[in-house]
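Data deposition worksheet. Section B asks for the primary sequence of the deposited chain exactly as it was used as input, without tags or linkers unless they were present during the calculation. Section C holds the resulting structure in token form. Section D is free text for depositor observations; keep each observation to a single sentence. Incomplete worksheets are returned to the depositor.
Section A, Depositor: J.P.
Section B:
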Amino acid sequence: MPFHHVPQPSPQRMVPIPGHPLVVGVVPGQPELVALTASAWSDALGGVPLYFAYVDQSRIVDEEYPDGTVRHSDLNPDSVDDSWEQREREIRSFLAGALANHQGPWDFRYLAGEPARALTHLARAVDASAILVGATRPSSSERVREFLAGSVAVHLARHQHRPVLIVPVAVVDWKAGIPW
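Section C:
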């Protein structure tokens, strides 16, 4: 198999932080702390745009567009599942409430496929300076999956060159011992 050179992080590949947007990965039911943290970072950076994105792993990408949006469809071509539209409305509504006091521009993108890849595509498309995601306190079954497959934040840190900011949304009491 021939060697394929992958561009590595370097000072030449850094996206300047001032004036460049942030991409923010969100999931349904996530605490508003992630959106509020993104808003605070945007304000601190002079009101840079925020691109919130949810990646639906039950859908596949049919086409990626230069602006970071995608055309997507159900994994099963014979299925007619439009529940994603309701999920999109709920996330948009949640973000509108959480960002009611945010002064800068923001947008929401409903993406599909593998989360780290989809967020990376969006970050490249909008020339983001960083990607912000919320850390989760996974259930016991999710802990096994994360141990074997890795978290979205880890995948992002290993497969693209932008900094990844992780917002803690649940912490472990270290005095109580390791939770697994």
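Section D:
The chain has one domain: 17-170.
Confidence is low (pLDDT under 50) at residues 144-149.
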